[in-house]
Structures are given as C-alpha cells and as structure tokens.
Design a protein that fits this description.
The chain is mainly β. It is built from no helices and 7 strands. The strands form 2 sheets. A 4-stranded antiparallel β-sheet has the order 1-6-3-4, with no helix packed on it. Strands 5-2-7 form a 3-stranded antiparallel β-sheet, with no helix packed on it.
Length: about 110
C-alpha cells in the first residue's frame, strides 16, 4: 500500500476484507526546530514482515530511514505513511494486525 492508498508493483496480491488505508498523521510543533523521522517493523507476528516504508511530507516522499532535517510542521501539517506487507504461507488464517513504529524527534 503506497501513501496514495494504491497497490503498486506487487504480484499475487489479494486484499482481504473491504478496508485498507495508508496511515495519515497530523504533525505539530511548538518550536521552530527541524525534525527526524524513523520507521521500522516491530516484527510482532511471526512470518509477517513490514518493509519498503514510505513517508510523505510536504509533497516529498522519503523511503530511506532515518531521515533528518525535515521542515518544522508548525501548528499542523499532514504526513502519510505506506508500506509493503509480506507474509509467508505459514501464517495462520485469521485476523492479524502487524505493528510498525514511527519515531519522530526534534533535531538538536
């Protein structure tokens, strides 16, 4: 799923259920500092991997993390997140909710 809510560059993909969505976040800061973003797979479900993270902010897409020196969001600027979800055939049937972590810190 890209940050645009599109399936892209994938093979043998089946979307289960009727709901899928890229993440949307509102970033805000009470300072004027730039900030750093890091994204990673929490790996909390065996044989499920989240990878190829995308972070879209102020009309630019970032795919390598961490990324530093991002412009300050001021009182509120949206950011969008997308990623690929890969799972092996050994994953048990049923609902799963793999986790990812986004760390946002102000630069010194």
């Amino acid at each position: 799923m890209t940050w645009k809510n599109q399936l892209k560059g994938v093979k043998n993909t089946t979307v289960l259920g009727d709901y899928f969505n890229a993440g949307e976040f509102l970033l805000a800061s009470d300072s004027n500092k730039t900030f750093t973003v890091n994204m990673s797979n929490v790996a909390d479900i065996p044989d499920v991997e989240l990878k190829t993270f995308q972070f879209r902010y102020q009309n630019k897409t970032y795919t390598s993390f961490p990324v530093s020196g991002l412009p300050n969001p001021g009182s509120g600027t949206p950011a969008f997140v997308g990623m690929r979800i890969l799972w092996k055939k050994t994953v048990e049937p049923g609902d799963i909710a793999p986790s990812y972590e986004i760390t946002i810190t102000e630069d010194p």
